[in-house]
Write a structure and sequence with these properties.
mainly alpha; Arc Repressor Mutant, subunit A; 3-stranded antiparallel sheet
Length: 144
């Protein structure tokens, strides 16, 4: 089975997650979550969401050093969140949202209502139905 998330993660042959989408590995989830945990890296992703930027253009938007921005870009590149293309002497970065979809797949079971919430909704529906029926029965008795 080929992982749904393309890029460097595929080649690692990581153990599959037993509790979620089988194409998403626990190690992959940890890697992507760790990458987006840093506010500078999240800001880089926001910048790249709208356009392709060179490393210099990205670095110019931060008050940290260019080597520090470079390290952040490397982390994002290694987990597959950004890709780079060499154009002349520049490295142009672009967002690759596929790993975020993998993370969203892993998070999805936590966002769904728990089983008991579904049962409470069914109980609520049954209570309303019963009240409606009793109300109809009382109206029939009053008219008879």
């Amino acid at each position: 089975m080929t992982p749904a998330v393309p890029g460097p993660v595929q080649a690692r042959g990581l153990r599959l997650c037993q509790t979620c989408n089988p194409s998403v590995t626990l190690s992959f989830v940890n890697e992507v979550a760790g990458a987006i945990a840093d506010p500078v890296r999240r800001e880089i992703l926001v910048l790249l969401r709208g356009s392709r930027l060179s490393a210099g253009e990205i670095a110019s938007r931060f008050e940290i050093s260019r080597p520090a921005v470079s390290r952040h870009l490397r982390v994002l590149r290694e987990c597959g969140l950004v890709r780079d293309e060499v154009v002349g002497r520049q490295r142009i970065y672009l967002l690759d949202p596929a790993p975020l979809a993998g993370l969203a797949d892993w998070l999805a079971p936590f966002l769904r209502p728990a089983g008991w919430e579904h049962h409470l909704d069914a109980l609520k529906t049954e209570v309303y139905r019963t009240r409606r029926e009793r109300g109809a029965d009382r109206r029939e008795e009053n008219t008879a």
